[in-house]
């Protein structure tokens, strides 16, 4: 996708739990097997939107299929990680207009554990692999805190 | 849309609270003013899917723009009625593939008060105006019961 990769194949973050899960989901949505021979770093690379990459992107554009698929994989990975941690079924719901504006919810039982507005989906990405991990861990912790606080609603 | 209307302009149900709200939302989504001179009954009529009308429809089809707009209006009207009853902001989230399969959620605070799978959206509708009112009242009552049961989650 980009000329030069910004993730190294030896980055220790590639071994962290959420990143492993995310790669699994990215590979799962790769219905044509294009990623088969790609390393994890190469598959994750398009999710990194550095300042330099952002500058190259148009300000306004429709997100392409790969970006939409990456967005889906990302929120699916979050939902599945939450599900594994709390033991209840967890599902993401993404509603995105073709212009790349929308909302994404993750629910556990009848509890909303994540609720985000999506803007400029064609620019979807994280400053670095570390930022991806930090932001995702924050969402996961908040979700877990919600489930712990309202266990009855999460169990419906 | 259909040759013959199945709702009468003098149907007393047209005066019920939810139906009035629904008409307001159907008119609100009518961005080209096509409904301006239409009676409420005529605007509601395409939401009635009698057995006879269903027989005329293809089994599998993509929902057209009017149907999608009607679906949106319907869930917006439900959300706004719930909002008015419970006093908290309420929002619907509809995620629908172009084949007419998807899911719709209504949340109040962090509480999911309605969660439905949408199938065959091109056949969206109710057997009669009475069925529309009965089914909607049921959803509204269930939502209200959820809010009463978990007021803290609804107030987040």
Can you tell me about this structure?
The structure is a homodimer of 156-residue chains. The longest helix of chain A is centred in the middle third of the chain and has 22 residues, at 65-86. The radius of gyration of chain A is 16 Å and the shape is globular. Chain A has helices at residues 17-28, 40-44, 51-56, 65-86, 129-149, 151-154, and strands at residues 90-96, 102-108, 111-118. The model of chain A has no long low-confidence stretch (mean pLDDT 92). By secondary structure, chain A is of the alpha+beta class. Chain A has a single domain, classed as Putative cytoplasmic protein.
Highlighted features:
14% strand; three-stranded antiparallel sheet; Putative cytoplasmic protein; homodimer; globular; 156 residues
- Number of helices, where a helix is a run of at least 4 consecutive DSSP H or I residues of chain A: 6
Quaternary status: homodimer
Order of helices and strands of chain A: HHHHEEEHH
The CATH superfamily of chain A appears as: Protein of unknown function DUF269
Strand segment tally of chain A? 3
Instruction: Using the alpha-carbon principal axes, give the shape of chain A.
Output: globular
CATH class of chain A: Mainly Alpha
* β-strand amount of chain A: 5-15%
Q: How much is the average pLDDT of chain A?
A: 92
CATH topology of chain A: Putative cytoplasmic protein
Per CATH, which architecture of chain A? Orthogonal Bundle
Spatial gap, N to C terminus of chain A: 42 Å
Low-confidence stretches of chain A: none
Radius of gyration of chain A: 16 Å
Largest sheet entry of chain A: 3 strands, antiparallel
InterPro entries (chains A, B): NifX-assoc_nitrogen_fix (IPR004952)
Protein name (chains A, B): NifX-associated nitrogen fixation protein
